[in-house]
Amino acid sequence: MAEGGIPQPPGWPILGNLFEINPSQAIKSLFRLRDNYGPICKLVIVGITRISVTNHELFDELCDEHRFVKSVSGPVGQMRNGANDGLVTAHPNEENWGVAHRTLLPAFGELHVQDMFDEMYDIASQLILKWARQGSEKPINVIEDATRFTLDSIALSAMGARFNSFYSEDTHPFVTHMLRFLGESNLRANRPAFATKFMWSRERQYWDDIKYLRTFSKQLLRERRQNPTERTDILNAMVNGRDPKTGEKMNEESIIDNMITFLVAGHETTAGAIGFLFYHLLKDPEVWRQVQEEVDQVIGNRRITVEDLSKLRYINSCARETLRLYPTAPVIFFKPIDRVHPTVIGQGRYTIMPRQSVMAVLPAIHKDPEVWGDDVDDFRPDRMSDGKFESLPKNAWKPFGNGSRSCIGRAFAWNEIILITALAAQSFNLKFKDENYELEIDNIVTLRPKNFFMHAVPRPHLD
Ligand code: HEM
């Protein structure tokens, strides 16, 4: 038992526990540590201490905003290199965070998100059209198309920018630069800083990628300033809105930081969620049958409206269960508010030192058998049905993060997930390209299914 009551695996001189985490399979490594050392574990890697929490009881304590705040650590800490004090990467109480948060909260609210529905629908129908045109013989790379959908959707709905990803075979350069930036941020977070310093060509690429993301966003902003519109989108909220508390406007750098933030945070996670949901719809024919039956009953053959989305209760349960099993932003970091005295959790058992970061491992917390029972690994939408969902223990299901630092784009993401599922069910019968496909998980910063291909066969009523 190590200092503070927190178990720590034996380590190597100087490097400490460096080899306990495989950077390309970090979540798997954290599950292994949980199995070997229990729900809280300490690693010391080249002198830097990391604590991971993997059960609901301890996580519930971390979510108490009187005792803990967000810590900008791990991959998110590295992403600050590109997005500075944008919403995701801001330290607690940074001034620009407060101004941006208060200015943008209404713009991301349920009502405004409903206003964005027509443009979201526009992009979603491009995806459906693509699948219909290419025919049922050609395999669909689900995650690539989901990424095209979510990227084009956030760029158009939030900023009036058309990336036109469905009109080109190649991925938009923004996505290439962004994925490399995210991947390298993850690797940097998992290797000692001195090692990074010697990786000259990777470093050059990393900073070039950041430069591209910033230049691209700056250009979008310039175009908007040169061509003002009456649109009620996020970019206009940033350019014209004022903080209701201070009356301040967001400054130029903060707008660019947040444009990058929305384009980055606003599509990877949702695309991953769509990918995992589709995987389970294909995997379980009975679930797929119920999804199609619900769409046929609630909507039939007509155009889907924004009001329909909340009526699709079974699909909503499937989406909740998907994000339980695969919270696509899988780790969030906390640190104690008390910067002088140690903070004790776990009924006096574990001591967290001031300024110490604690990593909450959501995929493990979402599979705590104390909350979910013995079948934690099974995809069971019925456990997320209305009524049961609301009765879950506090903080048992947290794919969108915690408290004041939780996801501002939740309503937007939810509409995307439900809409694309409903449209696919209305239009196609889906089947795996390879019936023996075993789910593989890509874990760069977010979680995504890997090598997942399917066929979409148009439903008879569309012939
Ligand atoms: C924050 C998850 C979609 C924008 C977060 C956090 C999580 C999360 C866990 C907290 C991060 C932390 O504590 O470090 C997700 C998931 C999504 C999703 C699972 C999709 C299924 C979106 C979308 C947008 C967005 C579509 C933008 C339109 C943000 C922003 C924050 C955030 C700006 C930072 C909020 C703040 O700290 O003020 N998200 N997100 N997210 N998300 Fe999302």
TrEMBL record:
Residues binding heme, per UniProt: 407
Family, as annotated: In the N-terminal section; belongs to the cytochrome P450 family.
Protein name (record): Bifunctional cytochrome P450/NADPH--P450 reductase
Organism per entry: Talaromyces rugulosus (Penicillium rugulosum)
